[in-house]
């Protein structure tokens, strides 16, 4: 701060104030994820990549004999450990490894025998997305489908920038359809015939599962 010019000093004063508040809470063993930070303070500290500012997923490895009570055990874990952006999940690593070596039909049959609805990998990914407040949208170019992860509440223009900065800079509009609607139609061409493709502007909030084509000009 001694070396900064007066116009730059205000930013460093705000940064110092934010870090001082964090230090006081951390010394009380309170992780950053559990603190109520104002948007300005969150932006100031984002470049530091503090470990306890990140969401936390606690994975507990249980034995096959404990699978019947896994739901109750997981609920107890979450009562004890869950908090702001923190969750716990119980998985049987040995069983998951064995199921991963089977085809999907056989694996689904084994899961049903154990009362498991989805794989540990699927559950872990879903919970990680929820904790990180992420959603996915899709693009289709030349029969290639790609998924893009963005924060919930992202606008169409910012989602375009996730793909390429030129698309954000020259954004014109977005043409989109929900995943369920596309499945019912069977193809983009059929969805267009049925009038289900939506034309959205730059302020449209992207929804989880949207299939989007961005129109842009630079």
Q: Care to describe what's here?
A:
The chain is of the alpha+beta class. The protein folds into three domains: 6-52; 55-131, P-loop containing nucleotide triphosphate hydrolases (Rossmann fold), CATH 3.40.50; 134-216, Beta-grasp domain (Ubiquitin-like (UB roll), Roll), CATH 3.10.20.30. It has ten helices and seven strands. The chain has helices at residues 6-26, 39-45, 70-81, 93-100, 104-114, 120-132, 156-163, 165-169, 179-185, 188-193; strands spanning 56-61, 86-91, 134-141, 144-151, 171-177, 198-200, 211-216. β3 and β4 form a beta hairpin. The longest helix is centred in the first third of the chain and has 21 residues, at 6-26.
Q: What's the topology here?
A:
Layout: H1 6-26, H2 39-45, E1 56-61, H3 70-81, E2 86-91, H4 93-100, H5 104-114, H6 120-132, E3 134-141, E4 144-151, H7 156-163, H8 165-169, E5 171-177, H9 179-185, H10 188-193, E6 198-200, E7 211-216
Parallel strand pairs: 1-2
Antiparallel strand pairs: 3-4, 5-6, 5-7
> Beta-sheet strand percentage?
15-25%
Q: Count every helix, treating DSSP H or I runs of 4 or more residues as helices.
A: 10
- How much is the average pLDDT? 90
Whole-number count of domains: 3
Secondary structural class: alpha+beta
- Main sheet? 3 strands, antiparallel
How much helicity do the residues have? 40-55%
Low-confidence stretches: none
How far is the N terminus from the C terminus?
41 Å
Briefly characterize the structure.
The protein is of the alpha+beta class and 218 residues long. Helices cover 45% and strands 20% of the residues. It has 3 domains: 6-52; 55-131, P-loop containing nucleotide triphosphate hydrolases (Rossmann fold); 134-216, Beta-grasp domain (Ubiquitin-like (UB roll)), CATH 3.10.20.30.
